[in-house]
Every structure is written in C-alpha cells, then in structure tokens.
Design goal:
- The chain is of the alpha/beta class.
- The protein has a domain of about 210 residues: SGNH hydrolase (Rossmann fold), CATH 3.40.50.
- It has twelve helices and 33 strands.
- The strands form five sheets. Strands 12, 13, 15, 16, 18, 19, 21, 22, 24, 26, 28, 29 and 31 form a 13-stranded parallel beta sheet that branches.
- The longest helix has 20 residues.
- The protein starts with a helix and ends in a 9-residue tail after the last helix.
Length: about 600
C-alpha cells in the first residue's frame, strides 16, 4: 500500500514539475519576432555528423532576450529571385504582424549565372529588395536591409585575386579545391561582390530603411586577422576530424561556430545603432549553450570547461538556452566568477541516487548522487532548474553547493529526499526568489544560507531542513518572507530536524501552510540535541503558524536585532549580494 501511494505521489509530482519547468520564469509568447530571409551565410545548418558550419542567423537568438523570437527562413543557395519564385517569401510575409522585423540579406547567389537565381544590381536585384521592403511595411512590419558578408579572398596589393572562393554547392558536387594550383596569398581582401553590395544600400536610402553594412563589418574583421588567422572564422576543416566531412574542407565563404558567433556579435552592435528600438533587447554573453546549435556548445559542462581557470576581477557569463540538459555538471574550484544565466525552461537534470551502484559496484552515496556540483566561489546562477529525476528512492541530490559567496536567483531545485545540499563548511549562500521542493531533509548541510522570498514546497511528509551547523558558527539557515506550501495529502511536516548537534534554522515572517505540524520542530530522536540546537521563528503566519504549540526547545524572537540579512552574509570580506547583486567581491591584495 505504501509503495502504491508513493508511486501515485511520484506521478503527480512529475506532472506538477513538468508544468512548472516549461511555464516558470517568463511568459510563453515573445513580444517581437525577427524574421530572417537570405542565403547560406545567414541560414540555419544541419547538425548531423557534428557539422560545425553555422550561418550568422543560426546563432543570432543567443544575442537577444526572450522578448525577441528569431525565426530564420534563410536557405542555402537562394537568391532574392529564387526565394520569391519558390514561394518562400509568401510563407514569411503571411506570418508577419505589426511590430515584427524582417532582416533581408541577399547577394551571394544573385551573382550566379544560373538563370533561376541570377539578378542584376540596379534593376532586378533592387526590384526584389523593394518588394521585400514594401510588403513588409504593408503588414506593419519593419524591414532591415543587409549586404553580403565578405569572402575570405586575399590577394596582392595590386588587387590580383590569388585565393578562390568555393561555394557550398561546389563542395557537394565534389569540386576539389586542392586541384587548383597553389598561389601565395597576399594581405589584402579582394572584393568578389561588386555592385551587389550597393543595391541594399541604395534601396535602403531610397526607401528610408535601416541598413547594416555587413560587408564592411566582416571585411575589417577578416583583413585585420590576416590570411592565416582569418581561417578560424571559416569552414577550414582538416581531414578526418569531423564525421560530416571526412575529407576535410577549405571554404572561404561559409562560417564555422566561432565565425558565426563572432560576426553575429558585431552585427547586433550595428543593429543597436541603426535600429535603436532593438537595442534594449540585445545581450552579449561570453558563451552560449544550446541544443539547437545556436550556441558555442551543446552541453553545460563544455561551457564550464572552456572558462579560463582563476579568471580574476571579471565575470565569465554563460547563457543556457531552453532545454533539458541531462548531464552531471561539475563547476570546479578554479572556475571562479562565473555567471550562469538560464532562459525559460533551462534545466540541468540527472537521475543518480545514493543506493545506485557506480562502475565498481559500490553505492554512490548521498554526495555522489547530485545532478550538479558547484565548488567555485562567486558563482551566480539565474533562472536555472536543478533537478534529480530518480524519484522517491531515498537520498538523491539535485544540487550540491560547496562554494562561498554563491548566489542563486529565480532558480528551482526539484527532488524528493535531500534535494539541495548546502555542503560547504564556512560558506555563504544566498537564494533569492527561488523554489525548492522535496520530502525529507530537502534543504540540508553545513553552510550559512539565506533564503529570501523563496517558495518551499513539501511533496511528501517529512522535514524541510536538516542543518549540520558547526559549533561556534554564528548562523545556519535563515528564511525571510518565504512561503511554505505542500502537495495535496501532505499534512505532517516539521520545519527542521538537526542533522548535527548544533544545527540552526530560523524562519522570519514566513507564511506556513497547514501541513506544518503544531510542534514545528523535531530533535532527530536525541534529547541531547535539544540543548545545543537553535531553532527560532519571528512573526510566522498562516495555518501552520502555531507559536503556543511549538516545542519547548525552540524560540519565538521578539526582535530582529541579530538577524540583519546583510550582516549574516557579510563575513570578513563584506559580501553583500542584496545590495550589489552578482558583482565581484573586492579582491584584497
């Protein structure tokens, strides 16, 4: 009977959790859509076989807040003519609504002699661009014109072209770049686009449309890097390195991940100047993690590993785009000053638990069960869900925090027993507007931790906290203005029991549901611990607030003289996340 109840509870919690994973933090519908139309240099790419090619439009979404949705319709091999003739433009314009943007970039394939794609600058090319602009405006949209990115086409000072550009179509047809006689490259970029660069500029001026000179942006970047270093932007892939292209590739037109991210970063800065209404939505992150290929990495751990060790006096910012990242993440002590920012629905999840066997047949143990481990000081996390999906199988940690000055904002911690492990002795942790759920001891450990305006949800009968506060430590857990709720049928929950003899937990102005037992506190079966623990409340309210019925060894505070939030977290270095947010602590030399 007990197992049936647990299984039913588990199913309910999974449904409840799934709802919150994908509805928490922000509204579902973005405010503005940016539609993108163009060719392969802008297009989204296949990820099959580890393909490292990206269009700059593929990665653009990682530079905007979630108020902006990027809908990229750019397609390999298309010109302004073929994009219209194939009905692609009709599909886009049918979706444009008032206030949306249409980013327009053609030219590479309009230059081709192929009659299905060829247009002429000054006449047919300009006419197609005008059509995109006028039809966008007719729908209440805002057109923005771009010219083509540069080809990596280095030549000599007298403008002799000595490096040929190879198209993606040519690559697919098996054209061997190496069959061309080798020629020494010069240090000047030689233009290959001619008047096709002028048409977007001219139409933009004629129709008063914002214009982004992508050719100049990329020309300056590539030429400054020079013939050799500029290869790191393009699809120069050695043989036998990438399954998608075993023979390798030398492509001076198309971008790799690094090139696309670099150029998109330059582009959004230009957009901010030419289209000021979009500037408030633009963000720059050092790294982006995304499962759809729009970032630098596919996994959170790859991004953490890329952070320089002991990068002092500056933060490394990492955006985690929407998705469930099933991986065990470890943030080692050397990866200091990292900010991990999640988009709506960004989840770090795993399913280990204490009695699960490791590769040697040993129990993993509580510490070994965590989905995420944070050891690095000054770690800031926002809008991330940490989840352990193993279910009600005993100890199963979602997040293990052994870091000093760790700051969690608007995060979620989902599990059953032992959800959030505040492991670090002598460490300070600050949780603001977070959600923590579990059954037994689901907030536990040694650290000093402040929970400000958090939602603490019991999904089973048990104990909210199990502090292991060391003797002589001034503070353990302090909850300010938190809400304590429970799942249906949960009605026997204690505020705390002491994992170690000197455990401390204090609740200040918290709203407690009726699931909290009248006695409130538990001694973990030890009368001796009643003499050493410190359990207290200040102005508790709600159905679970019952000061007259609380156990005798607990306290009802009459003032908050010793419980100033900033003083609790200050320590010896004056850390103040309430005032300074995720700013770096001062480095004392």
């Amino acid at each position: 009977m007990k197992n049936k109840k647990l299984n039913s509870l588990y199913k309910f919690v999974l449904l409840f959790t799934a709802f919150f994973l994908f509805s928490a933090f922000k509204a579902d519908n973005p405010v503005i859509t940016i539609f993108m139309i163009g060719d392969s240099t802008m297009a989204n790419k296949s990820l099959e076989g580890g393909n490292p090619e990206r269009g700059w439009g593929h990665v653009l979404s990682g530079f905007f807040t979630e108020d902006i949705r990027v809908d990229n319709h750019a397609m390999n091999g298309r010109s302004s003519k073929s994009f219209i003739d194939e009905g692609r433009w009709d599909k886009v314009i049918s979706q444009v609504k008032k206030g949306d943007y249409v980013f327009i970039q053609f030219g590479h394939n309009d230059e081709k002699a192929d009659e299905k794609r060829h247009t002429d600058p000054g006449t047919t090319f300009d006419a197609n661009l005008r059509r995109f602009v006028t039809e966008t405006r007719a729908k209440g949209g805002i057109p923005v014109l771009f010219n083509s990115i540069v080809r990596r086409n280095f030549g000599t000072a007298d403008a002799a072209v000595v490096a040929s550009a190879i198209s993606q179509d040519d690559v697919r047809k098996g054209v061997d770049k190496n069959a061309t006689p080798a020629v020494q490259e010069g240090d000047k970029l030689i233009d290959t686009h001619g008047a096709y660069l002028d048409s977007p500029r001219n139409v933009a001026k004629e129709l008063n449309v914002p214009f982004i000179d992508m050719n100049k942006l990329t020309h300056d970047l590539v030429e400054d890097l020079g013939p050799e270093a500029s290869k790191k932007l393009f699809m120069w892939v050695p043989a036998n390195k990438v399954p998608a292209m075993p023979k390798g590739r030398e492509d001076n037109t198309h971008l790799n991940v690094y090139g696309a991210r670099t150029i998109a970063g330059l582009t959004v800065d230009a957009i901010a100047k030419e289209v000021p209404a979009l500037a408030p939505y633009i963000r720059h992150y050092d790294y982006v993690v995304a499962q759809d290929g729009s970032g630098d990495f596919f996994t959170v751990q790859e991004a953490i590993n890329a952070v320089p060790d002991f990068r002092k006096n500056i933060r490394t910012t990492i955006l985690i785009r929407k998705g469930v990242y099933k991986e065990k993440v470890v943030v080692p002590e050397s990866k200091i000053n990292v900010s991990l920012i999640g988009q709506d629905g960004a989840v770090i999840s795993y399913d280990d638990y204490a009695s699960k066997k490791n590769v040697f047949g040993e129990n993993m143990g509580t510490s070994g069960s965590s989905s995420c481990y944070i050891y690095a000081p000054d770690f800031y996390v926002e809008n991330i869900t940490f989840q352990n999906t193993s279910g009600p199988v005993g100890q199963a940690v979602a997040c293990f925090v052994s870091a000093d000055r760790a700051y969690f904002k608007n995060c979620r911690f989902l599990g059953f027993q032992d959800t959030l492990y505040t492991y670090g002795k002598g460490c300070r942790q600050y949780y603001e507007d977070c959600y923590v759920e579990g059954t037994v001891d689901f907030i536990f450990g040694w650290s000093t931790a402040v929970f400000n305006r958090c939602h603490i949800h019991s999904v089973g009968n048990g104990y909210v906290t199990a502090p292991a506060t060391d003797k002589g430590q001034k503070y353990g857990y302090v909850f300010y203005d938190c809400q304590l709720t429970a799942a249906e049928g949960v009605d026997r929950v204690y505020l705390s029991r002491p994992w170690r003899p000197y455990g401390q937990t204090v609740y200040i102005r918290c709203d407690m549901g009726g699931h909290i037992l009248p006695e409130g506190w538990n001694n973990w079966g030890s009368k001796e611990k009643e003499k050493t623990v410190y359990y207290a409340e200040y102005q508790s309210r709600g159905a679970g607030a019952n000061p007259q019925a609380r156990v005798a060894f607990s306290h009802q505070l009459q003032s908050l003289e010793k419980y100033d939030m900033e003083a609790i977290l200050a320590g010896a270095d004056g850390w103040n996340p309430i005032k300074n947010g995720n700013a770096l602590v001062e480095i004392k030399r």
